[in-house]
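Question (not urgent): is this output format expected?
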Amino acid sequence: MRTLSPHRYCERSEAIQDLSAKAVWIASSQGLLAMTEQEFIAVAQSHAQQN
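Got this back:
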């Protein structure tokens, strides 16, 4: 069985953490976009009702 040197293990661990952080950022961004879209729709409907 092949084992990773401590240095290579650290690089792999950092790469996994980086991917995880990117996934969290993407999910957060998607949530913010969804909220922005919902707010936009609500404002547009409010303006349409006023006219």
